[in-house]
Amino acid sequence: MQVHRRDGLLVVSRITGPTHNRLALRLERGAVLADLRVKVLPSVGDCRHHDGLTAEEMVPAILDGIAEANRELGTDYVATYAEIVENDSRQPHVYTYLARHLVRAMHSQDA
C-alpha cells in the first residue's frame, strides 16, 4: 500500500479482489478533539456491497487504529478530518488497519 499526500491529507487505498477501501486523514500532534469530522465521498463505480457506509459506523474503527499506532509508537497523533468512500467495503477492521498505517507513515515523515 502506498501512502500519498493530497491537499494536506494522507491517503491510502487497499484493494484485494472484490473488496476495496480508501481512507484519507488529516493528522496533527497533541491536539485533543471532541469529534472527528468524516466526509463520506460519493460512490466510485457501480459496485454496491451494501446500502452505503456512514461516518458514524466508521469513526470508532478509525479512532481505534490511531490509538493503536499511538500506543505502539509512543506518540500523540489525532485525526482532525477523515474521508471515506460511500460504496467501499463494509469492513471496520480494515479502517482500523488503514488508520494505523497512516499514523505510522506520518510518524516516519515527522521523525
Q: Termini, distance in Å?
A: 20 Å
Kindly state the percentage of residues in helix.
25-40%
Number of strands: 5
Number of helices: 2
Unreliable stretches (pLDDT < 50, length at least 5) are none
CATH-defined topology: Ribosomal Protein S5, domain 2
How are the strands of the largest sheet arranged? 1-2-3-5-4
CATH class: Alpha Beta
Structural class: alpha+beta
Count up the domains.
1
* Radius of gyration computed on alpha carbons: 13 Å
Mean pLDDT: 89
- Main sheet? 5 strands, mixed
Identify the CATH architecture.
2-Layer Sandwich
List the helices and strands in order: EEEEHEH
Approximate shape:
globular
Strand content: 25-35%
Tell me about this structure:
This protein is α+β, with helices and mostly antiparallel strands and 111 residues long. The protein has one domain (3-110): Ribosomal Protein S5, domain 2 (2-Layer Sandwich), CATH 3.30.230. 34% of the residues lie in helices and 33% in strands. The chain is built from 2 helices and 5 strands, in the order ββββαβα. The protein has helices spanning 55-73, 92-110, and strands spanning 3-6, 9-16, 19-29, 37-41, 77-85. Strands 1-2-3-5-4 form a 5-stranded mixed beta sheet, covered by helices on one side. Helix 1 packs across helix 2 (92-110). The model has no long low-confidence stretch (mean pLDDT 89).
